Amino acid sequence: MIYIVIPVFNRKHFTKACLLSLRKQTNQNYKAIVVDDGSTDGTADMLREEFPEVDVLFGDGNLFWTASVNEGIKHALKLGAELVMTLNNDVETAPDFIENAYKWAKVKPEAVIGALEMDAETREPIYGGEIIDFKLNKVRHMLQELPKEQQHGIHRVSQLPGRGLLIPRVVFDRIGLFDQNNFPHYVADYDFTHTAARAGFELYCNFDAKLYTYPEESGERKNRKKKSIKNFYNHLFDIKGGGNLRDFTRFTLKNCPKPYIPYYLANGYARRIFGYIIH
């Protein structure tokens, strides 16, 4: 069974749509675990009344993404989980999502496997995994490199986000949980996958497992749309800031090969500061 951990804070309409999409799966061999970190919009009541099959854990509003996910993972592991998946609540799953997750997990039982992300509005693919080159400070996007006819099956990558991330138990046994101390909200997923890769686990993006996402709903997208001094500060320093300099620095020092750290940091700082202003 795949234990699916979904951290939530308000936005119950997204949580409901996500869980309803899971109910439509061709393979129902999964268990959903929702970690509600202090929602005030009736999320808890909705889950209790409409989704009694879901395990619900509660936080006090201070867990943020990483600690919420870790609480859900610990619960899953206590229940005997051999496969855990992290999933954001603002996504919907294609009907064969779980079926195709199992398909490739059987082929690569100790690999960490991500999902193909599709725009929920256009139904066009928008993310298929990345390969990072620390030396050149470049990120190669698999969707841009793979011909259309090859955009199926699994493809090797070097980092993955936490949306639809399938993780075998053996990975947690070897490297532990997500690093909530250094990365309380953003970057923890990329850090985790880099840590897993250094420990010898392969990373793949599963182009057959499709998620439908709403990119315009991300806090960082909204932050950039309404530019102001306050939002610029939040972008660089807030715990939910997409360009958080502290998180980026910690990620670099932990994951970038030492010879490339100075250039990678300088380039990254410039992109986060000036990129917000220009774009």
UniProtKB/TrEMBL annotation:
PANTHER family recorded: RHAMNOSYLTRANSFERASE WBBL
One of the record's GO molecular function terms: glycosyltransferase activity
Keyword Transferase attributed: yes
Pfam families: Glycos_transf_2 (PF00535)
Database matches in InterPro entries: Glyco_trans_2-like (IPR001173), Nucleotide-diphossugar_trans (IPR029044)
Protein name as catalogued: Glycosyltransferase family 2 protein
SUPFAM superfamilies in the cross-refs: Nucleotide-diphospho-sugar transferases
EC number, as in UniProt: 2.4.-.-
Glycosyltransferase 2-like domain segment(s): 4-118
Taxonomic placement: Bacteria, Pseudomonadati, Bacteroidota, Cytophagia, Cytophagales
Keywords, ordered alphabetically: Glycosyltransferase, Transferase
